[in-house]
Structures are given as C-alpha cells and as structure tokens.
## 1
Amino acid sequence: MQGQMQLSLQEEITQFYYREAYLLDHRNYREWLDLLAEDITYVMPLRVTVENKMGSNVNQEMTYFSDTKKDIAMKVERLYMKSAWVDDPAPRQRHFISNVMVEQTGAPDEYKVISYFLFKRSRSSEANTEEIFGEREDLLRKVDGDWKVASRTVYADQSVLTVMNLAMFL
Amino acid sequence: MNLIIEELKQMQGKLEEGYFPQWVVTDPEIYKLEQEKVFSKTWLFLAHESELKESGSYITRMMVDDPILLMKNRKGEIKAFLNSCSHRGTRLCTEDYGNKKAHTCPYHGWTFNLDGELIGIVAGNKVYGEKMDKSEWGLRPVPRVESYQGMIFGNLDPNAMSLEDYLGDMKFYFDIMLGRSDGGMEVRGVPQRWIAKANWKMTAENFAADPYHVQTTHRSATEMKLTPSDPLYASYGHQVVLQNGHGINVITSATGASANKYQGMPEDMWTMFERNLNEKQVEIFSKVTNFVGGVFPNLSFLSSCSGSEGVRHNHLNWRVWRPIGPEKIEIWVWYMIDKALPEEYKEKSYKGFLATFGAAGTLEQDDTENWARIIEASSGTMSRDRTLSYNNMANYLMGFDNVEIDETFPGPGEAYPTCYTDHIARSMHKYWLELMTKESGGEG
Ligand code: FES
Ligand SMILES: [Fe+2]
C-alpha cells in the first residue's frame, strides 16, 4: 500500500514537471508563473572548477540570478513585450526533465525533489543549437490540491555557460 | 598578411571621415592579425586584487588563448605566469581558484612554488645530469604585470608603455569608481562566464561608445517603466574621448544632475568620497547617473543605479570580452562593490545588478541578441566586398560635424556635450587601426 502511494506521488510530481516544461517551451509564461509559490526563492549559483578538497564545486557567493516571485513576474511580463528582442522572434526551446527523485521533508505537504535537466534552444535559422544542463533542487509544496514550487536552485554543469544568455527559465 | 595591412592602411582616411568597413569586423585574417598586433601589445585585464586574499591564493585567467596562473606569494605580492609546466608544457593548474603552497604538475610531478620557481623534480638527482639547472626551469612570467587601483593587468610586450601611461586620463575616472571609498572595492564571489556569438570589437564598442543603442535595444525597460521614455535620456551628459582608444560616457540627466546624488549611496559616506576624491572628481561623481565605458581593447565597465520603488542602488560591473574566434567571445563579468557599504545595501545592489546585467539580466539579454545579429550579417560576400562597390561601410557619422568639445567639463579628456555621438567609437577604431598597421619590431 505504502509502495503504491509512493509510486503515485512520484508519478504526480513527474507529471507536474512535464506540464511545467510544456508551459515554458510553449511560452505560456503567465500560466507557468502560477506554478510558483508566492514565497519562492529561485536561485542559480555558479558552477566552478576547483579541487575536490574544496568540498563543493558550486560558488554560492555569486549567482546568475537570485529571484523572488516579484522578480520572476517582472521577467515574465517583459517576455510578452514586442521589444524583448531575445524572445521576439521567439527561439524554439525544449526542457528535458528526468531522474526525478522525491524525498520526504519534515512538513507533510512539502517534498524535496531533485531532477536533471537538459535545455536546448534553437534561434533564428542557425544550425548550431545552444544547450545547458545540470540539476535542480526543488522544494515542492501542495497548496489546496495543487503543486507549487516553493524553492528552486539550479546547478548548471558548465562553468562557462554555452548559452548566449539566461533569458529562459530553468 | 602584408596584403591585409596594405588594405588597412588604405582605410585610414575613410575611418577619419566616419566610415568603418563591415568586413574587418569578422574577417579571419584580421582576427589573426589582431592577436599579434593588438592583444600581444596592449594591457589586458587579469584580476582585481581582492580576488586573491591570502598567501597561496591563486586564480586562473586567459589572455586571449594564453592560460595564466596568478598567485599571491608569501610576501603578499601577486605574480602572473603562463599556466604551463616548463617540462613538457602541460597545463599546470586546471582550477578556477583555490589555495596551495605549491603547484605540482600532474604529468611527471614537477613542483613550482608561489614565486613560480621549480622546487621539486621527481627523482631529480637520479635521472638528471649537470645540464639540468633547476633555476632555469621556473614558470614563464607574463612579461609585464602592473596594477592601478587594485586592477591587475598583464602585457605580453616587454617594451610596452607603463600601465599608468597606457590608462592615461582614464585613471581620473578609475579613481572615482574604485578609489572613492576607504578600504577600496571587492569582487563578490567569482566572475560570471558565458559564451556569446559576437565580435569583441563590437561588444567593446557597445559599452565604451554607444549609449545611442539604449533606447531601442533596451526598449522593454522603457515599456516596463524602469527607464524614462524620453528617447534622449541616455544622451544627457558627456561622452569623453581618452587616449589609446579608451573612453567613458558620463551620463547625467536632462537637468545635468542625478536624482540620486553619488549614485544613490548612503549619505554618511559622502564626506568620505569628498575626502578621497579631488574637487573635479567630486563634481562629476555627485551628478552622474551612469558611467559606462571601456579600456581598449577588451575591458568594459558599467556603474549604474537600479532598483524599483524609487530607491536605487549603485552597482559596478567589469567585463572582459575574451575573443575565442572572430565570431565568438567568452564574456567574463565581475561584480564589484565598495567594502565600506553596509551589508544591506550591498545585497540590494547585487540584486539590482543581477536583474539588469550579467547573463540573466534583462538588459544584457537583448544586447547579446543584437551582437549576434551583427555576426549573422557580416560574413557574406556582399558585406565583405573589399572593392567597396556596395559602400560596405558601417556608419560612424554621428556627431562628426555637429558636436563640439565642451571646454567647461571638469574632467580630463575631450568631452563632448552629449553621449549620442560616435566620437569614442571613431577614436577606438582609429587606435585599433594604428596598432594593426604598425610595423613589428623595434621600439614598442
Ligand atoms: S609536463 Fe609537467 S612534469 Fe612533465
Ligand atoms: Fe546595452
């Protein structure tokens, strides 16, 4: 019984991520915004190349972004403007989300979820495609029957990003 | 190569008239020549001294294609070497930063100390004879390393003029941005790094010389009511042409002052600024909204104010456009802040920076888009036609014959009373052309 519940939770969360990716890839940014908790912290620290003895190859002091919901909302609104050249004409983008691992937390409605991502983007009629990959560490919260991302930390695997900019949401 | 140099020489007159041929932007031969004539002769930014805190601290950087290792030795001096083992040339240090007393090469185990000296050879006594003199096999130092206001630069040309001479009047403006506070500035964390499709000349020009793009490229900021809708808002103030291809835009406002005195820094710091700067620097600093400019060839900076709810916080960022080909750059962005500022202010300033500049900054995103579009349209036969039958010239005519120097501007340099002018761009490209056509050898 317990096992089955776990499986359905896993399934539910994975489906949530697929839907999230779909919304982003189809530029339904406003709907995507609804998937984020009001108190979300959305952060992307820098991946660095350091010796293993340093313990971590993430530099938390500098980030690429460190956003609250208000900051994200502003970015979302910008992408609907015709003068946000980075999104008009729109590049084509795909978020591939996999390796979803769900962990219990102290709170009954909150789960820590690790997922892997591969983001690919094609802009203009260019043959080269851009990509960025790594993992995300989320706190997911169930609010009135709906999942919300309560926090997300994005760890890219590249220390030198091979995307022209971080206009996308990861 | 000689042919190219001849062609470039013929451009001289054109450039002075405000024309710059589109083909030189991305031409592969030009790119090769730039490595030899520009990047091997000029001062390239390596690091800020705050990035190397204690003895043994090290960081790795690139001077175009040369990997560089900077280390702080026991005496507290920062030295820079080619990051290549003197035995067989292996890259010695592969990390971005760290701390150690000595660096050991992973190939055969030679060890170098913080002064770059070879101090350990595996089985040295047993395998090497008399010909091997350890003292001759240290790391190869960058020929010249000098610093100003904590900014460390390297130069591959042993005969180059001193860094201070090279910076010239830019020092006056560096003092304002870097020397205003007791305790100086510090880099937060490490620089952001990413790859963009762009040519280094155009990105350098974008920061040093081009407030004219702001209104259009960054129109979304206006639409979001983050910046004024007046199409001239980025033009108010002075564009200042400095020696050796450097330049700075001192942007104010329609009234000639800023709504945020001293770029919105706390009032209790003002007397400190006034003590650390001279009268002319104080006059400029108290009125400026944004400083944006560049040190030739590929260091740029922006000191601006961002924030919503009427409260604006100053932030300063430096960037190196490291060329990795005629059509590609690696962007390095350092965020720097006055050590003396309160923590709370620093945090808000940092957030303001992230929101606007850096890889995820909304303003920078649209810049990268336009830089890529220059590449996309500059590589074909028509845009590279050398016979000029299509008049393949990019337009640098702005302010050519309708803007005069403002002698009343308090700072050094040739100051023009608007930032919508191509004076710095013409001067940058003129200096570039001088270097590109200079005969090699002899006195640098
Ligand atoms: S190459 Fe470094 S020790 Fe041989
Ligand atoms: Fe810009």
Note: The longest helix of chain B spans residues 2-16.
## 2
Amino acid sequence: MKQKWLWGTVAVAAVAAITYAYLNHDGQKSVNINAVGSTALQPMIEAAGEEYQRETPGVFVNVQGGGSGTGLAQVQSGAVDLGNADMFAEEKAGIKAKQLVDHWVAVVGISPIVNKQAGIKNLTSQQLNAIFTKQVTNWQQVGGKNLPIVLVNRVAGSGTRATFERYGLNGSTSADGQEQDSSGTARSIVASTPGAISYVAFSYLDDDVVTVPTLNDVKPLNANVISGAYPIWSYEHVYTKGKPSADVQKFLDYLQSNKIQKTVVPRLGYISIHDMQVQRNVAGQISKVK
Amino acid sequence: MDEIREALTKTSAATKKDRFGRILSMSALALIIFVVISIFWFVASKGLATFFTNKVNFWDFLTGSKWAPGQLDKAGHPYVGAAPMIVGSFLVTLISALIATPFAIGTAVFMTEISPKRGAKILQPVTELLVGIPSVVYGFIGLTVVVPVMRQLFGGSGFGILAGSFVLFVMILPTVTSMTVDTLRAVPKHYRESALALGATRWQMIYKVILRSATPGILTAIVFGMARAFGEALAVQMVVGNAALMPHNLTSPAATLTSVLTQGIGNTVMGSLENNALWSLALILLLMSLVFNLVIRAIGKKGAM
C-alpha cells in the first residue's frame, strides 16, 4: 500500500509539473533570445543578458559557448538569434558572410605572454614572427637567456589564434607545436614551462605568473589599443541572420548602450567600442574614427 | 456454468501484468536499438563525407602525418593526415594499460586472497572513490604535478605521451582493479582448498591456480580499462600537449584522437571539410570502441569454454 501511495504521488507531481510548464509556456508569451558562440565573448553577453532580463520582464537571454565557428554556423542556419564570434564572418571558410549582419559589441586586445625564465622584456614584430615560424628556437637569439623556445599555440580555427596570426605575425601561419583550447590553460602552461610562449586576451594577463613583454616597445594596455598604437586586437562580433527582429534589435542596442559599455565591458576586461579612436575593416585596414 | 467458463477463458490479471511488463521492456529495448543505430548512422554519414564529398583519399587520411585541415598543400589537397593522432591514442592506451595491470592485479590479490577483511574495509572504498573524481581534476593534477616531474626527469617540455599515460593509468586503475577483484572472487573455493591440500604454498596457490583460472576475466578487465583510456578526452588533452605531430619520443608533445576532436569541434563550421575531417576521427573512435567490445566478448567466450 505504501508503495502505491508513493508512486501515485510521483505520478501526480510529474503530471502537475508538465501541465504547469505547458500552461506557463502558453500563457506568458515570453521572448527568448538565444546566443551561441565565442567563449571569449560569452561572459559579456551573459552579464549583459542578466541585467537586461531584470530590466525587461518576459525576455530571456540564453547564452552558450561552443566557439566562434559554431556561433557563425548556427546563426547562418537560423538555429539561434545571435552568433558570437571573435572574427569577421568573411574570415571563416564555409560561412556566407553576405547573409549575416555584423554588430560590434566590444574590442579585445591580445598579447604574447612569455615564461619568466626566458628573461625577455621586449619583442619586435620581426622577432615574434621568427619565434612563431621557428626561425628562432632559442631565447638567446632574441636577447634572452640560453633556453629553448616552447611554442604553445591556441587551437587552429580559434578566434584568438586567427587574430594573433593576422596582426601579431603579419599573416604568417604559426609553426606546429602544442595546442591548448583555453586561455586559462595556456597561461598556466606558460607559467610553469621554462621557455614557453603563448598569447592570451588582455583580461588574462598577470604579471605575477608570466612575463608580459612589450611589443615594439609598446605596452599591451587598453589605452594603446584605443589609440591604435598597439596592433593585436580584434572586435567582438555579434552576428544576426539578416535584419534582426524588433526584440533582438532592442537587446543589441542595449549591448551597445552607454550603460553596458561603461560598466560591464571594462569590468570584464574588454575595451568599449565607444572609446576606440581607430577602426578596422575586414581587410585589416586601420582608419581614424571621426 | 457460463460464469465459470467466462472466468476461466478471460485473461487473468497476472497475464495482463505479464504482457504489460513485456511491452514495457520491449519498447525500452527498441528505443536503445534505435538510439545506437542513429548514432552509428549519424557519425558514419558525417565521417564518410570527408572521403565521398570532399574526395579525400582514404589511405592518405590514415597514413598522412600532417594535420591542418584548413590548409592546402601544393597539389591542392587539404592536410588531413590522422596518423599522428591514431599513433598517439594507441600509445597512451597501451602504456597506461601496461602500467595499470600489475598494480590492479596486486591490489586485487591483496583484497581477495591475502587480506579480504582489510581489503573490503579500506581498499574497496578507496578504489571506488577514484572513479568519482571528475576527469578535469585528474587533468589539472597532471598539469601541475605530473608534467613538471616528467620535465625534471626527461627534459623537454614535459608534455607528451608519457604524462598522458600516467594520468590515464590512475584513471583506469579502479575499473581494472574492481573487475579483477570480481573475477578472483568468482574462482570456486574448492580450487584453493584442493591446491592447499596438495601441499602448495599460499603463493603457489595464488600464482599457479587462482591467477591462471582467472586469466580470461583479468584480460577482459584490462581490455575494459583500455577502452576507457582510448575514449578519455579531457584529462589527456590537458597533459598530452596536443601537437598533431608524429611522436618521436614519449616526452615530446603529441595528440590523441579525442584531444584533437574536443578542441577542434567548436571552431569549425558544420559541413565544412574541417568539420567532416573531425567527424572522420570520431568514426575511427567509434569503430575502435566496437573492436574493444568484440575483443571483450571473444575473451569472455574463450573463458567460458
């Protein structure tokens, strides 16, 4: 008897839960905005999405990672509303960029990081290129200590790697070496492996565990990205398929609003698009913002 | 009279319950078969697209040693050589199984033959505890402890097949141990009694009788552990170095099928060559786990006599 009673309760509870969910779904007429893509951009969209939900009841912003490629592919196929990417859609093979509309929501700077034992303070662009194409294999050759260079790349196809190769290595492809798919792991590997070099977004820079060399004597600082003095940076893109619906447009406006750009964006280590004094197009040409 | 006849020919409550139970279990079975078939169909259709849609030579795929699906060589063919990953996967699997086997057999013998009481009280929960630790924790310990030790001992960066094997050895140890314990426990008691009665020492009894008669079971346990090691992704990915290069020694960075797969899948576009090539790797993994299963069955059959 006791068991029957138990099963009965479970069954009733399950039916009640499903009915409730169904009725709720029907009655609320809620708006769901789904965003998928770049893990580098994920924290910002999540934080902004939470605030947006609080301000506009009935709107739900669902954010998932998965990588820039996934974001672009999913938004192109129409499966999600927003596709987050670290790169221009034109740079990704297999994406019909003409169908997508680009929205810039932030800028992120990328800097090389070097293991402390290498004894490096500054690298020139030529040196950086030589290191990552394996023309130089010992830190001695670029003014450091006698220590072999260990390359720690990001995964092929990742937005950070694409940006670094394009603007840090002047378009050269990095030589084969270790690959890691997250900024955190890349940093801890560089910190613990003698002679290692990798590259991470500014928000992952930490002078205590790794050396952050200047590039052509320019410090990797937000201010230098803003003024155009520091070259390795990229836009954080949010793509929509065609013109977005009114609800999605509102959220995009919110992402680009002063409120988010002044609070969430700097807090999470990105650079606000409003601050930028230079702009860059798909071809990589830099021009002044009027 | 009619009432009695009716009562006798009517389906009884027990039969109804019986039928209900059969329908329930049959539909569960059908669902599982459907899921398995659709997984195979999905992975195969995606994985074979590399060869049929993108016209990659199957032999080049298996034996090529450069993996960069986004780039083209001089002849215009993409670099999709999976050999480094296949070799890497097999090496970490074999080496971890080689290290794990003596430890697992030793622990199991201690738990069943030498000190069953203490074994049940202390070792059993300890080995079971190892199963519950998430693989990312193993990976992190590997990254902060195993890799630096490897670097100290063998030089280089410390990342490589040896570090991966070490992490995997700890991860498969509980699986192999608990399965070996089960087989040793299943050896009939009269085997032990007869051996001792014939004048064998305890060591002779363990070595010549119990381990011998449990060999098929132990082999199954090892293959099971290897199947686990072959499919493990996260922990290995953190310590193996993920360089899709032919491993020229055990402490140079290498890659496994799973590590390339997990890192790459988020950065490729569905339907592109890069994506299809990754699915081909997944197909190899799926076929390999099928092979492991068949091997386990074959060993089990042989053991059953």
Note: The two ends of chain A are 79 Å apart (CA to CA).
